[in-house]
Design brief:
With 72 residues, the protein is mainly α. It has two helices and no strands. Helix 1 crosses helix 2. The longest helix has 36 residues.
Length: 72
C-alpha cells in the first residue's frame, strides 16, 4: 500500500468517526430538549434516546420533584 492510499484511509476513518460523534451529540441534544419540555427529569425516562442520554450524562432519575407552577 502506498502513502496516498494510507492517507486516504486515515481521512475516511477520521470523517467516519466525526460523523459518529456528531450523531451521538445530536441524539443527546434531542433527548435533553424532549425531557425539558415534558418536565420528566424526576421520573422515568420517556424513551430509549432519553434513557441513553441519561446514561451518557451519568444522570439518574431520583432527585427533586419539581413541577412548574401551572401544573399544581
Amino acid at each position: 500500500m502506498n502513502g496516498s492510499m494510507a492517507s486516504a484511509g486515515f481521512i475516511f476513518l477520521a470523517i467516519f468517526l466525526c460523523g459518529v460523534t456528531i450523531g451521538i451529540v445530536a441524539a443527546v441534544a434531542v433527548a435533553i430538549r424532549r425531557e425539558d419540555r415534558r418536565y420528566s427529569l424526576s421520573g422515568a425516562a420517556p424513551g430509549v434516546v432519553a434513557r441513553g442520554a441519561r446514561r451518557l450524562n451519568g444522570f439518574g432519575g431520583s432527585g427533586s420533584h419539581y413541577l412548574p407552577r401551572s401544573w399544581s
